[in-house]
Amino acid sequence: MRPWLVGWAAFPTAVGIIVATFAVAKVTDFWLLFVVGFPSALVVATFGAVRGIGGLMEARRLGLALGPLAWIATILATLCNSALLAFGFFVALMTTLGFGRGRQIRRAGRILLPPVKDGASWTSPALDPHVDEAVRADLAAQWRENGRTEHASVAAFARLTLDLMSLGAPPRLVAAAQRDALDEIRHAELCFALARALDGRAASPAPWDEVASARTLSRIRTLALARLAVESLVDGALHEGVSARIIAQLARRCEDEAIARMLREIAADEGRHSAHGFEVTAWCLAQGGAPVAQALRGALRAIPDVMHSSLPAASHDGAWERHGIPGRALESDEYAKARTHVVRRVEQLIAGVAA
Ligand SMILES: [Fe+2]
Ligand SMILES: [Fe+2]
Q1: What angle separates helix 34-61 from helix 69-95, to the nearest 10 degrees?
Q2: Nearest residue to 191 (alpha-carbon basis) of 270, 106, 105
Q3: Which of 135, 172, 177, 303 is most exposed, with the fewest beta carbons within 10 Å of its own?
């Protein structure tokens, strides 16, 4: 087959691999399939591009007509445009593989969480919840799990601070990221303290090697801005917003005043974190312009209609909501409201920016 024909055939093949991977992942709910599917598509596309360029060089060597340069420039611009759309779609997809109560540290989409060991360093203040003996052990396990995601959020905001500084963000955004990290330290302490109060075990986050090798942004400024914009949209504005809504509802349904007070405090903080996520997205858009808007358009297509959380089966019917753990119906209702709100705001944000 002629090299340029291979080049043209590779592009739809690569797109086909991504579409097929997405379809299989959606049916089987096995989203880590993208770790194989996306690189495979990239290899096919790269192979096609190399053969296509080879074809053009061969045509030039043989003195064949290449067509007007403007025509080629238009094709290149279209390809770049499509690539940014796909980039935003992919980053959003990887960011929605798991839901973890707000900003998280991820690797290939998988949320990284700290290990836990015996120790009382993260278990203050002392709490005294009034909870039935029969559910104390299971609730303690879930609150300890919540504590791990809150602890991971501290690292995620530290990462955000570095990202913002590397891109030259203004002090108000850097300060917000720093304040949000302090909030997450308090949330982690409250969660581990409540777990201890429920089952009597003093356990805290252990040394966490994995976090030191968490991802950094691309050195290409446009790609870095696009990635931070999409991550702040999904993990910041959306996931922090969903957390704020769910926890605010739980504070109303909770029977124990000590837990309800703690939930009100966390809900108010998560609401602010969501607003900060929007501010980071808006700043990245203002800095990056049309390419970032294009990545955000791709991201909007990847945000799932339903939320994938991993709560224990005993909580699914809402029986634990009086103890501060949501049921499935509350989660999906609040996710749908937050999703609608976030999508509308981002559409307004990018409406004035050319595709
Ligand atoms: Fe939090
Ligand atoms: Fe948060």
Answers
A1: 170
A2: 270
A3: 172
For residue 115, the CA-to-ligand 1 centroid distance in Å is 18
| Sequence-ordered alpha helix ranges (H) in the chain | 3-28, 34-61, 69-95, 133-166, 171-199, 221-231, 241-253, 257-288, 290-302, 328-351
Q: Give me the residues near ligand 2 (ion), CB cutoff below 5 Å.
A: 102, 240, 270, 273
Phi and psi angles of residue 107, each rounded to the nearest 5 degrees, phi first: -135, 120
Q: How far is residue 261's CA from residue 193's CA, in Å, rounded to a whole number?
A: 14
Helix 69-95 crosses helix 221-231 at what angle (to 10 degrees)?
Answer: 40
- In whole angstroms, give the CA distance from residue 149 to residue 143: 10
Q: How far is CA 172 from CA 157, 210, 319, in A?
A: 14, 29, 41
pTM of the model: 0.75
Q: Which ligand is nearest to the CA of 275?
A: 2
Token reading at 286: 């203002």
Q: What is the pLDDT of residue 318?
A: 93
Residues with Cβ–ion distance below 5 A, ligand 1? 150, 184, 187
* Nearest-ligand number for the alpha carbon of 102: 2
The alpha carbon of 26 and the centre of ligand 1 are apart by a number of angstroms equal to 29
Q: Which mean pLDDT values do the consecutive 10-residue runs of the chain (355 residues) have? A: 61 74 60 64 67 64 67 70 73 63 80 95 93 93 96 96 96 98 97 97 95 82 95 95 96 92 96 97 97 94 84 91 93 95 95 77
| DSSP 8-state assignment for residue 158 | H
CA dihedral 110, 111, 115, 119 (to 10 degrees): 180
